[in-house]
Amino acid sequence: RAKDKGRNTYAIYDSVIEHKAQARLKLVNQLHEAQEQGRFEMFYQPRYDAQGHMVGAEALMRWQQQDGDYLKPKTFIELLEDTGLIVSVSWQLFRHACEQFKSLMERHKNISLSFNVSARLLEHPEFLSRLKYILDEYKFPYDRLELELTEQTLIQDVTNSQFILNQLTAWGINVSIDDFGTGYSSLSYLKNFPVHALKIDKSFIRDMNEDKDDLELIKTMILMGQNLNITTVAEGVENPAQLQQLVAMGCDQFQGYLFSHPISFTQLETQIESLFDIDFSKFKSDQ
Ligand code: C2E
Ligand code: MG
Ligand code: MG
Ligand code: MG
């Protein structure tokens, strides 16, 4: 009897694993299909300076479902990376973003485009040549592109990262460290990598008004940026109190739901025209 029971347990366990594997396979097939059908799209989240001017936008991937809804990358980005599909999807989306931003940037001289680069893409042997090829195809000004890389991505292959970052910098392309402060890596890499901006991770911003430690860490990151001549950007700014503090501490740029959620390109074009100035004085009197 006990033996039977044991066998049943294994059977259930097996079927759970099998079910998971099948679900994964189904999702992989859907991702391939989505890539072929061009169902991945870019949304854009604007970034602002301390005067309230939009200085650029970050391209964020979305996957449009059959019902029209857009799926955020959380649920599928890991699988895109594991399967290596991230490479072809990234180039597809990068080309699309360049095309969209080309004319927008001609009309708005202070706007730049930020694009997230995953480890799989960075380590791809044709990364630099493909990037340059697309930029030249659209005559996209190099100095108005920013590539966002995480510490984890950079330290996976330090020699390769250094080589690539040096070339990007020689071309005038900006590099920023995304999710800064969460990477558990040595800060000394900042000395060796040419870095243009630090994007302070949103987990620090979220609790900064309640958690003194987070506030102190943010202060330190901003000071470090100032001393190393690196722009500091706060991500995940959701309320006026956070913004006010960040401005007071000398943070250079801001991104978050307070300003705008990630929006479609058409919405971005409107937002650039209508919401150019943020009334910081209004925020101050709210406090
Ligand atoms: P990330 O690059 O750090 O992007 C910021 C994420 O924070 C975005 O999530 C954005 O929607 C969200 N966010 C923005 N403002 C706020 C806020 O005020 N509060 C909160 N709670 N969240 C905010 P999203 O779009 O779901 O993207 C998640 C991550 O997926 C990105 O993190 C990035 O690492 C990755 N990702 C997105 N698009 C791409 C892409 O095209 N290529 C690659 N390689 N990775 C991408
Ligand atoms: Mg990013
Ligand atoms: Mg980030
Ligand atoms: Mg993040």
Automatic annotation (TrEMBL):
This is Diguanylate cyclase (GGDEF)-like protein. The keyword Transcription regulation does not apply. Residues 24-276 form the EAL domain. Coiled coil: none annotated. One of its GO terms (molecular function) is catalytic activity. The keyword Membrane applies. Keywords: Membrane, Transmembrane, Transmembrane helix.
